[in-house]
Design a protein that fits this description.
alpha+beta; eight-stranded antiparallel β-sheet; EC 5.2.1.8; signal; Cyclophilin-type_PPIase_dom
Length: 252
């Protein structure tokens, strides 16, 4: 029993750190309490406290405010991210995560990630994540959209395995189509489900306990050895879309 409790505590602290890597003021507030993660997960499970689940076919009715104004990736794209002079090839999956993938590819094309650092890398007590993409560099920032003058946020987007469309705005208990396998890339967020912006993380090992709670949108196809050597403070030299740029659809 002590071993199980210890493993649970380690997982709780890991998730807590991942949530702190979300963005904006909710993140800062949660920084004072390591138990806030457990509270937030219980809160997210309650339909009274979260946005109702929405499928992509319902977005025309604006069930998630502002969703129709977000970039969307219709299909797949390839992004090559260079860290310490070495390339990491990422397959970005807009088939199963169109909004999350579209947001990432759009930010890559805008050059948002160039020069940003990995502000959080966790390998102890076991390999966990390498997290970056924060313009502030401290885990509290996100992408400020010049069109609206505020932080662009995207809804939590998870497609259950075998489902036609993703579910938006809430965590799920079903097995997702895109899972936290070693080399997955996913969005970090604060305690609020619809708070992801620009911060992302690579999983350094399989992290199945995150499935259904965070939005995976692709995986590393080449260069995981580079990911595995990322240290806290390392800089993203550049990120470029090398294939599939035509699949990105942006609001006019």
């Amino acid at each position: 029993m002590r071993l199980k409790f210890s493993q649970f505590l380690v997982a709780l602290l890991m998730i807590g750190g991942l949530m702190l890597g979300g963005c904006s003021t909710e993140n800062v507030a949660s920084n004072t309490s390591p138990t806030s993660t457990a509270t937030s997960k219980a809160t997210e499970a309650s339909p009274k406290s979260t946005t109702e689940a929405t499928t992509v076919s319902e977005t025309s009715s604006e069930s998630i405010p502002g969703m129709k104004d977000l970039p969307r990736l219709e299909g797949k794209a390839t992004v090559v991210m260079t860290v310490k002079g070495s390339p990491i090839t990422i397959e970005v999956d807009g088939t199963n995560a169109p909004i999350t993938a579209g947001n990432f590819v759009d930010l890559v094309q805008k050059g948002v990630y160039d020069g940003l650092k990995f502000h959080r890398v966790v390998r102890e007590p076991q390999p966990f994540v390498a997290q970056g993409g924060d313009p502030k560099g401290n885990g509290t920032g996100g992408y400020i959209d010049p069109k609206i003058g505020t932080e662009r946020r995207i809804p939590l987007e998870i497609k259950p395995k075998g489902a036609k469309d993703p579910i938006y705005g809430k965590t799920i208990t079903e097995q997702p189509e895109l899972q936290h396998k070693q080399g997955a890339i996913a969005m970090a967020r604060s305690q609020m489900p619809d708070s992801a912006s620009s911060q992302f993380y690579f999983t350094l090992a399989d992290q199945g306990f995150l499935d259904g709670s965070y939005a995976v949108f692709g995986h590393v196809t080449q260069g995981f050895d580079v990911v595995n050597k990322i240290e806290q403070g390392d800089i993203i030299d550049s990120a470029k879309v090398t294939q599939g740029a035509e699949n990105l659809k942006t609001p006019q």
